[in-house]
Amino acid sequence: MTVLIIGAAGQLGTELCLRSKVRGYDTVAVDYNELDLTNESSTQAFVAQVKPTVIINAAAYTAVDRAETEIASAFAVNRDGPLYLAKSCAKADIPLLHISTDYVFDGKKPTPYLETDTPNPQGVYGQSKLEGEIAVARTLNKYITLRTAWVFSATGNNFVRTILRLAKERDELSVVADQTGAPTWAGDIAEVLLEIVERIHQSKTITWGLYHYTGSPAITWHAFAETICQQAFELGILRKKPFIKPISSYEYPTAAKRPQNSALACALIQEEFLISQADWRKGLEQVLIQWKKNNEFST
Ligand SMILES: NC(=O)C1=CN([C@@H]2O[C@H](COP(=O)(O)OP(=O)(O)OC[C@H]3O[C@@H](n4cnc5c(N)ncnc54)[C@H](OP(=O)(O)O)[C@@H]3O)[C@@H](O)[C@H]2O)C=CC1
Ligand SMILES: Cc1cn([C@H]2C[C@H](O)[C@@H](COP(=O)(O)OP(=O)(O)O[C@H]3O[C@@H](C)C(=O)[C@@H](O)[C@H]3O)O2)c(=O)[nH]c1=O
Ligand SMILES: [Mg+2]
Question: For the structural domain made of 2-158+183-218+263-280, what CATH number should be given?
Fold first, then answer.
């Protein structure tokens, strides 16, 4: 069983490598330095050389606002890269586990989005990720595309890290309270993907296709910031909690428009794989404890 992890140095990639090795799989982990996904011939050659049992694509262009101007880069990594991987998988007759985002939706639906709901991305990042989903689905039969959202982990840049940095610097923060979604710990996504890998390993029947998976419960970015500061305060990472002012998206202009409600319904993955949503507050606590241990954010 050889698991090939692409984008291994990212938030999800890091958690995947750790857990794949713990589970005893032969794990080949590469990031940008070893393999540029946007190069078709080197991607095809690399897959042919490694001969993996399954590929997990955790690589992506994830800078949502920068994507509005770096359009070609976003599409190269988020659309073309997955296409090249899907072609390689088709040739080798192996499955691809791919990751997508809640930002494929416009956010106008008042209730959680189903896999069958029509996407309508509001920005370049969401559009490029949607086109990546489509490329994979068109090229390959044996694929899982897992849409997730609001990912955080102890490594890399994410909302949790940004809020803690700001909370250290200021007494007052302003955070949008009119965008709802579901934070998801990268460790939980990695577990979900490796559950699917285990099924592949055991040659169990798999219903391939598109699935939603996020942490629970859904909240606003404002409420997420409140929880981050509260937990960090309780763990002694913050000496005092800042005042977090709830604002509207209008008061926080960004290059890319974000969806208003991007909560994802996760019943299908529960039905097909018996996978339940994890409480992201537990994942958050693990991340904060790790940062405390490493003396990050200490002043
Ligand atoms: N972050 C989030 O909030 C969310 C993420 N997702 C999706 O989840 C997946 C994982 O995201 P996350 O772990 O946060 O992403 P990160 O940005 O943390 O990691 C992505 C990794 O991909 C690498 N990469 C970029 N371009 C290439 C390339 N051309 N070839 C090879 N590797 C490349 C990056 O390298 P480098 O840093 O050097 O560019 C980075 O190590 C992605 O598909 C993302 O779209 C979905 C919902 C929310
Ligand atoms: C830092 C900050 C952000 N915000 C707002 C801006 C934005 O609307 C929202 C989230 O901010 P960020 O830019 O950190 O998050 P963003 O980059 O939009 O996060 C997204 O990343 C991509 C990769 C995904 O796939 C999505 O699921 C989602 O996680 O919070 C504030 O209102 N105040 C603040 O101080
Ligand atoms: Mg971001």
Answer: 3.40.50.720
